[in-house]
């Protein structure tokens, strides 16, 4: 087998360049007449497609034109047009977004562990993910569809090139810059079902090639598609007043109103952004952006005894970013601060936070075909709940100021050889955190071989770590309550500053081909191993039959034995025929879990019903040696972008999206164990979206937008709202 | 990497991946034989531009010892044009390449190529170049209608060109009928 591969490789290397000496040489073209030149097909039309073609990692680019034509109403929804991303609707406009899956690990966990915590989300290369739990509060993105020039998605671990948290991949939203001199303005309003209003407006001015500025604003209001909430006690969807959690709330109606100020509302958010670019010369580029956003949503993130699955989350953020490139030196500074309250009305889930990111990189290009880019990185994230809770009695999640600091060195090299046919990209990064104290090394090795202008193969091997999470490191909460008529209990929840960071390693091969002038193909085959997941473990406990505190227990954030492996493949095609564009994509993958134990307690925990009163036998280690198919990640999913430019004025677009069935398991599955409560059997489904646009003039476009045309109401996320058919009418104005 | 596959149960998967990888190589070998004679877009455009010089009657007043090709905005056409300059001449004149970034910078050139990535407004460029004996070549949809002399278009992945005869004549130039016969005429 090995010999055959070596032989095949050898044949490629020697046979291909010989043939590649084809008649594309300029001297040959100069000998031809215009008539002959007109008969030669072009193999590459745009620079963009060339760079996507040559990208060393699994990546996709979604452009603003595609987003507009497909009728996407938000950045989150637009991600359904990108291969390898699973986008599940929770409530109208709020989504759970996972790159290649690995969701709901460990199974039977509490809701907060459902969120994707391994994707690095950035706006113009500035990270916007949450240090709290590694996830992204998507509703807090200050930019919206109007601001987007393109969205770049990298699939697979890429921390060495992009920074920690790029474990399952990177989503980088690139904002638009004024293209032409003078004033430009874009306004876009869509109104539709469930009182959904999406309004975007931006105005920019390009004074000359050196200076340009944009100011933009966005607003979204969306009502829920249903008025009921899931009640686990009765296993049914009921009105707010009939919800058991509401009825037993000891703080009464006032607190219920605080938790659910707008029960009908799914999302209300607005943001204002300003962007300035100043390029005094070719070698100096300066850009600055600042903005503010406010959001109130009802989504599924976390819950307590007195809230439904869906909770009101509020957030406000302000940010300032500065980027300068002088000659070959790039300096990036970013500061973000705000307040988050993911369960409104529950004080212990509220905090102020600020994060500072500083990156300095230098690009050496002295040696021909070799690029070396060393970098220094400093990141500081501070989460502080002391303003909202009594820290003396450890009332808050971390009861004080939690500070996570990262200092890192990175090195990227990019080397092209054999007439630029072979490209080797190597990235390494050393991260030193304040906690955990250990030094972490991540790497990325990629090679692409351009067989000719139409065929490229590539190989990637990488390893990445998740960023240290505030929840994992700093949890510091005392939970007390009544144990019996005379005694109370005390549960101490503590973080673990020595926790091992979740990591993922990848091996991938890919093949890209421009099979015909109008047909592109991108195939990737990958396998990953992800380990060192963390969870809340019941470590120990002591009963005291005589004292006032009858039971004292310790819960600690700790690593668990479970690890996950994935094997999969993503295939994407781009086919253009006349006025038609057809871009289907599909991912087929298998996810397996090893060493999973359903018991979240240590061997020294007290005997309780949850460990069948035998902690020595039933504990976090008792799953060793087992393996099971992971049902929460779909085994296939994908979609298509089908566009018909019916003329200069009319455009029609269909974008179907589908996934196979899944099963999500929440911790209450272990309590009730009835196959219903704590279980969501998500059915395989096909969503069909359609959009039509008519350009009344070059500047004014009318749009009709139909989301979920088949009115498939099957739930997509654990006990979430049922999606419904939505129709939007809109106006797009561009000057 | 091997450590992921040392477990027996994974060996089968690894073998499968090797097989797929091998199939890819073999597939590539096959498709290679299907390759036809193709050219890159800007090599072709540069070759076209050089060819155009033979079919245009240039104004005699500009008979210096240089033939100037200007490029408005950054463009990949720069590299092939620089290559052409090394070996070719127009009417025994040395070819000079000039790069412009804004309309105000434009000085006389025999041919001005407007890059599609140029941010300058077409009206400003045309205002700066009208009646000066300059052949304006562009590569964006609708530009010939708006007044450029020649506009490249891609039809079925082949490079064609539109010619605006009025614009050529307004510039004080004459295009041969042989050239116009091949062009998509814009009126």
Automatic annotation (TrEMBL), chain A:
It comes from the Bacteria. Residues 53-170 form the TonB-dependent receptor plug domain. It is found in: Cell outer membrane. One of its GO terms (molecular function) is siderophore uptake transmembrane transporter activity. One of its GO terms (cellular component) is cell outer membrane. Gene3D superfamilies: TonB-dependent receptor, beta-barrel domain, TonB-dependent receptor, plug domain. PROSITE patterns: TONB_DEPENDENT_REC_3. One of its GO terms (biological process) is siderophore transmembrane transport. Pfam families: Plug (PF07715). InterPro entries: Beta-barrel_TonB_sf, Plug_dom, Plug_dom_sf, TonB-dep_rcpt-like. This is TonB-dependent receptor plug domain-containing protein. Its main location: membrane. Belongs to the TonB-dependent receptor family. It comes from Niastella caeni. Keywords: Cell outer membrane, Membrane, Signal, Transmembrane, Transmembrane beta strand, Transport. SUPFAM superfamilies: Porins (SSF56935). Coiled coil: none annotated. It is a multi-pass membrane protein.
UniProtKB/TrEMBL annotation, chain B:
It comes from the Bacteria. InterPro entries: YfiR/HmsC-like. It holds the Pfam family DUF4154. This is YfiR family protein. It comes from Niastella caeni.
